[in-house]
Amino acid sequence: xxxxxxxxxxxxxxxxxxxxxxxxxxxxxxxxxxxxxxxxxxxxxxxxxxxxxxxxxxxxxxxxxxxxxxxxxxxxxxxxxxxxxxxxxxxxxxxxxxxxxxxxxxxxxxxxxxxxxxxxxxxxxxxxxxxxxxxxxxxxxxxxxxxxxxxxxxxxxxxxxxxxxxxxxxxxxxxxxxxxxxxxxxxxxxxxxxxxxxxxxxxxxxxxxxxxxxxxxxxxxxxxxxxxxxxxxxxxxxxxxxxxxxxxxxxxxxxxxxxxxxxxxxxxxxxxxxxxxxxxxxxxxxxxxxxxxxxxxxxxxxxxxxxxxxxxxxxxxxxxxxxxxxxxxxxxxxxxxxxxxxxxxxxxxxxxxxxxxxxxxxxxxxxxxxxxxxxxxxxxxxxxxxxxxxxxxxxxxxxxxxxxxxxxxxxxxxxxxxxxxxxxxxxxxxxxxxxxxxxxxxxxxxxxxxxxxxxxxxxxxxxxxxxxxxxxxxxxxxxxxxxxxxxxxxxxxxxxxxxxxxxxxxxxxxxxxxxxxxxxxxxxxxxxxxxxxxxxxxxxxxxxxxxxxxxxxxxxxxxxxxxxxxxxxxxxxxxxxxxxxxxxxxxxxxxxxxxxxxxxxxxxxxxxxxxxxxxxxxxxxxxxxxxxxxxxxxxxxxxxxxxxxxxxxxxxxxx
Length: 655
Ligand code: ATP
Ligand code: MG
Fold this sequence. Notes:
Elements: H1 24-29, H2 35-42, H3 44-52, E1 63-66, E2 74-77, E3 80-81, H4 83-96, E4 100-105, E5 111-115, H5 116-132, E6 140-144, H6 149-161, E7 164-167, H7 174-184, E8 188-192, E9 194-197, E10 200-203, H8 205-212, E11 220-224, E12 238-240, H9 241-244, E13 257-258, E14 262-267, E15 277-281, H10 283-296, E16 306-308, H11 315-327, E17 332-335, H12 346-354, E18 358-361, H13 363-372, H14 375-378, E19 387-391, H15 397-406, E20 414-417, E21 451-454, E22 466-471, E23 481-482, H16 486-494, E24 503-511, E25 517-522, E26 527-529, E27 532-534, H17 536-544, E28 549-559, E29 563-572, H18 581-595, E30 603-606, H19 620-627, H20 642-652
Parallel strand pairs: 4-17, 6-7, 6-8, 7-14, 8-11, 11-12, 16-17, 16-18, 18-19, 19-20, 29-30
Antiparallel strand pairs: 1-2, 3-13, 4-5, 9-10, 14-15, 15-23, 21-22, 22-24, 24-25, 26-27, 28-29
Helix pairs in contact: 2-3, 4-5, 4-6, 4-11, 5-6, 7-8, 10-11, 13-15, 17-18, 19-20
């Protein structure tokens, strides 16, 4: 790609001047303090060693970091711990057994209240059951389940026994499950008979039967009854959870494992291509998950009620429902269903019911709430909320403001957290109580983490400049590789800036005049218009700042005169009228006014939906296929593939 060496790596177009300093009251009580940055800079390894002391270690490490075999890191070398013990037993032992760990809310409205005593009993029974099935430390277990408590018991039971789990999102197909079982040579699948989706039970086990028919490594299928759906049964292989787990002893002694013992494999969401099986290990991972959860969300274990709306099928569910929060003795809400079942106020009803104080979700959902309209959250008492978080995509400044105003009573800090499956835990984020927040910016690497924006040559760009986001120092929760494929690991993350030894995240970013970091989307998605390298995020944010627009996705399509032309797909807000020719012209002019004529879209399409991954990220590569009249690429991680037909039909009518 020769055009990459001309001009800046990424133009810097959109500016944002609103800032929101923390209140004195919040700052005074915050877990994080401004001095943490300097402390971490002075001695990074000592800083991480202090964070590792948050955990219980059976054997202390003798070296914080071994980077001699880079890019394969070892953290807390020689240390031994049990991850599940750290998330469950020690809270019971310290006298908090009666504290609620999980307020579980089923989609049909059934509920379960699980204390730390209950959690310990359930995890112990599950661990005893897996032992009875003959599983041994190092074996792999696939978990293919909806958001039921048994999914969390299963993950923790694996961690307890040193089994490596591979959670596969319950919305994925039999083929996705098959390929993930095969890749990891898993011996057991844990699943349910069915799952509730949008108010209706849907079978899940048939997909397992289909997958397992082709994966000879699987010895057993352990099935939780959730929907009472009729299922086929293979005697000897299939076992009901209620027959096996319920009769086990609720006592189990956790054994310590090496700090680098594999904890889980998890596949990336597939926005940029074939999903990668990311490997995470134990001590460093738990240290960073725990540290970030405590400081970024300002968790007060005795008074907060925390809710992360992710699915456990994604890394956010691993680090910010299971490992980070439980290691911090959280009380949290876990919700099984979709946000509009049975009505569009379901999340706010749950916040009101449990007095949720910390709420962590994705921009895609925030923009969906914008589309549904602010009258819906306004009907509920949301006054318990005190910290809001966002993850998964760049959050457009306008969506950030909407979130703070309509959900956070114009008061709460909003933390925009940048990280990846690969990073294991949050890397770049404001710290509530410390940082003056800027809508749309993840701002600064956390204390202990180092991130830079660099140009093609790997040289740091000046303030105001744009380029590639890299992580220039190893961090405790970093991936330890791609499962079974060391070459792909080096090639994917470490080859782009091999000379400098930087981890390349695949994302574009810029510094503003203060040196704060703004994420600008995937570098694969960057558009080149008449020699200007324009980020999708900036044009999308300009569109979302128009009062009629709820959500936007832009792509660069080949253009005979400009190289690429900007094609925008927009969803209008609930209260906006339909998008005729005038509306389209208004949107094109609005972008030109907000960020300059160079970014004016060639075409604006009003669409009912956008293609999103099952984790809610917009799949721009498919929109590029549409805009360039190609056949549509791999759609296996798409939430709803009929969306692509709707969009193509609209385009053919001439948008
Ligand atoms: P694949 O690597 O298979 O394409 P994926 O990158 O979508 O999948 P994840 O690891 O779930 O899978 O997503 C990480 C990516 O999400 C980041 O690289 C970044 O592009 C985006 N992201 C996450 N959080 C933020 C954020 N706060 N701001 C901007 N982008 C974010
Ligand atoms: Mg990725």
